[in-house]
C-alpha cells in the first residue's frame, strides 16, 4: 500500500526488496534495489540488498562489486563487510576475506567474527595465525561457543589433543547451562533439537576424535553415544568413528552390525 501511495518511499522499497529476497524472487529484488539506488545515489543500503540477491543467484563477482560500491559510500556499515568477507572466502580470495572480516570487527566490535579471520588463515594453512585470531576473539568473548569450537577443532587437527579436551570440557559446561536456560524459557522443543543438532554434532565428533587419539577409547565411545542421544540426529562421521573404536577394541563385527 505504501508503495502505491509513494513509489519513492525508500523504507517501503526496502521492505519490498527484502520480501522478494525472502520469496527467492531474486531478479525482482534486484529490480527494486536498483530503484532505491537510482532514487538515492548517496545511500548505501540499496547496493547491499542488491548484493545479497546477486549472491543468491551465484553471481559472486557481481555481488562483491555491489557490496564494494555500497561500502565506498558508507565504509562504517559493519554487516556488509561480513557478507563481503564470506563471499571472498567462497572465492578463495583469502587476503581480501581477512581484510573484510577485520573491517567488520572494527565497525561492529564483534569479537566472534575473529572466527572468520581464523578460518581464512586455516584455509591458507597458516595455523599459528589462526590460533592467534581465535585467542583475540576469546579475549573479548571468552564464552563464545563458536570461537571455542573453532579453536578446539584446530587443536585436534594439530594433534594438541590435551589442550583441545580442556576447551571441549568448557564448551560442554556452557552448552549444558545454555540448554537449562532454554528449558526454563520453554523454548519450542523441535526448534531446540534442530539447534542442538546443527551446533553440537561437530563438537561431539571432535571431542571423541581427540579422546580416540589419546587412546581413551571408553571416554570416546561415551562421547559419541552422548552425541547421538543429545543431538537426536543421524551423523555418518560419528558412526564411522564409533566403528573405528570397535575395530580397535576387537569388536569389529559388533560395530559393523550397529552401523548397518
Structure description:
This protein is mostly helical and 260 residues long. Helices cover 80% and strands 0% of the residues. The chain contains 15 helices and no strands. The longest helix has 25 residues, at 189-213. The chain is elongated, with a radius of gyration of 23 Å. The model is unreliable at 187-196 and 252-260 (pLDDT under 50).
Secondary-structure element string: HHHHHHHHHHHHHHH
Major sheet size, sense and barrel closure: none
Count of β-strands: 0
| Distance separating the two termini | 58 Å
The helix-and-strand class reads mainly alpha
The average pLDDT value, as a whole number, equals: 86
In short:
It contains 15 helices and no strands.
Task: List its salient traits.
mainly alpha, 15 helices, 80% helix
List the helices and strands and how they pair.
Elements: H1 2-5, H2 10-22, H3 26-39, H4 45-56, H5 60-73, H6 78-90, H7 94-108, H8 114-123, H9 127-140, H10 145-157, H11 161-184, H12 189-213, H13 217-231, H14 236-248, H15 252-259
Helix pairs in contact: 2-3, 2-4, 3-4, 4-5, 5-6, 6-7, 7-8, 8-9, 8-10, 9-10, 10-11, 10-12, 11-12, 12-13, 12-14, 13-14, 14-15
